[in-house]
């Protein structure tokens, strides 16, 4: 009897020990991060180590990117996939849809904790905003690029990639929407934009500022966007097969209706007018936009200024049913309008989206 009791006690003790070890392992286990590579300068290769222009973007594959920064494995268990190998100036709707589907499929898996996307800087802000609206997960999605090719002296890509993994592996990055990590800074997808053609400190969020920094190798968040994104977006998890055609027309002095007339003729579903100042429209262009609006093409007033909100102005704009873009820049207003048009053509519903996203 005494012997039996002793055996029972021993079994219970061993079970408890096993449970504690499993709990401790779970607590110290590194997160599983998938890196999706799309090309860009971060994977760029030049003929010489002093060349920072005239190189081939997207020349290196995902394995070369991962192997160049072995330190990322200190922060996460890393796997990689090549989505495409392009210069991001050539980004397409089809690649966006493929990328969004893959990110959603990966993040739905319990054994994937976050995704890092390597991307060219030219359209990085557009892909980031698109994903910000269609990703159906709270888990971190971090986009990263570089301004200098991988072959350059003092290439910025390796440190940016390390920082992107550090952020994706950080619990604080949960629920912040799609993030852009470059040059020691964390910006949010909605407000970030490329502001310098060649400088490594190119990504800024004009009028809003960064969400956080990588301080001495440690991600720190200081603020977050209040606008709808990811799990709070009505576009989340949509399996899209195409996107409506929306064009941006850039307003200038001496403007005319040439491009607007062409867009109407081509059958576009929406026009974003990058106006002067507070979304002001040249009188020659306004006539053509009013015609477009009367034909059911949705017209969004935006600004070429680079910061500040576009708010109601001339009485005629309201009469002509133009939408105000709020603080979205033209290239991002285009994306929101594309997604909006997959749901509705109701103008007040679309205007409401521009206030919420
Ligand atoms: N043209 C390149 C790209 O967007 C520029 C870069 O990545 O910095 O792919």
Report what the structure shows.
The chain has ten helices and 14 strands. The strands form three sheets. Strands 2-1-3-4-5-6-9-10 form an eight-stranded mixed β-sheet, sandwiched between helices. Strands 11-12-13-14 form a four-stranded parallel β-sheet, sandwiched between helices. A two-stranded antiparallel ribbon has the order 7-8. 43% of the residues are buried. Strand 1 (32-39), helix 2 (62-68) and strand 2 (77-86) form a beta-alpha-beta unit. The chain is an alpha/beta fold and 357 residues long. Helix content is 34%, strand content 18%. Helix 4 runs parallel beside helix 9 and helix 6 packs parallel to helix 7. Bound molecules: aspartic acid.
Q: Could you give the topology of this structure?
A:
Layout: H1 2-28, E1 32-39, H2 62-68, E2 77-86, H3 93-107, E3 114-118, H4 124-134, E4 141-144, H5 157-168, E5 179-182, E6 185-188, E7 193-194, E8 203-204, E9 212-215, E10 218-221, E11 246-250, H6 258-266, E12 270-275, H7 283-294, E13 298-303, H8 315-319, E14 323-324, H9 330-341, H10 347-356
Parallel strand pairs: 1-2, 1-3, 3-4, 4-5, 11-12, 12-13, 13-14
Antiparallel strand pairs: 5-6, 6-9, 7-8, 9-10
Aspartic acid binds at residues 40-41, 57, 87-89, 120-122, 145, 147.
């Amino acid at each position: 009897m005494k012997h039996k009791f002793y055996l029972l006690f021993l079994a219970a003790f061993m079970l408890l020990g096993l449970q504690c070890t499993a709990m401790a392992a779970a607590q110290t286990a590194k997160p599983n991060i998938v890196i999706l590579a799309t090309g860009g300068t971060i994977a760029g290769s030049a003929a010489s180590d002093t060349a920072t222009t005239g190189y081939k973007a997207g020349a290196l594959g995902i394995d070369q990117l991962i192997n160049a920064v072995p330190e990322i494995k200190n922060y996460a268990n890393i796997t990689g996939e090549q989505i495409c190998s392009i210069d991001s100036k050539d980004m397409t709707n089809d690649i966006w849809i493929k990328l969004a589907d893959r990110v959603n499929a990966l993040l739905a898996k319990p054994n994937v904790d976050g995704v890092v996307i390597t991307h060219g800087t030219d359209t990085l802000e557009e892909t980031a905003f698109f994903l910000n609206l269609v990703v159906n997960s709270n888990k971190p999605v971090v986009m990263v690029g570089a301004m200098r090719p991988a072959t350059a002296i003092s290439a910025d890509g390796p440190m940016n990639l390390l920082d992107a993994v550090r952020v994706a592996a950080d619990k604080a990055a949960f629920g912040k929407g799609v993030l852009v990590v470059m040059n020691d800074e964390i910006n949010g997808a909605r407000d970030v934009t490329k502001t310098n053609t060649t400088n490594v400190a190119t990504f800024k969020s004009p009028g809003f500022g960064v969400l956080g920094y990588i301080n001495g190798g440690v991600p720190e968040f200081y603020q977050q966007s209040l606008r709808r994104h990811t799990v709070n977006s009505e576009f989340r998890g949509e399996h899209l097969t195409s996107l409506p055609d929306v064009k941006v027309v850039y307003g200038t002095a001496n403007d005319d209706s040439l491009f607007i007339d062409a867009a109407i003729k081509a059958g576009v579903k929406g026009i974003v007018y990058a106006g002067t100042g507070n979304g002001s429209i040249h009188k020659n262009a306004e006539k053509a936009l009013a015609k477009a609006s009367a034909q059911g093409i949705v017209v969004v007033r935006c600004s070429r200024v680079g910061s500040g909100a576009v708010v109601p102005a001339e009485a005629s704009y309201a009469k002509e049913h133009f939408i105000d873009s709020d603080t979205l820049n033209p290239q991002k207003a285009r994306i929101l309008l594309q997604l909006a048009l997959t749901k509705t053509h109701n103008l007040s519903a679309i205007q409401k989206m521009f206030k919420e996203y």
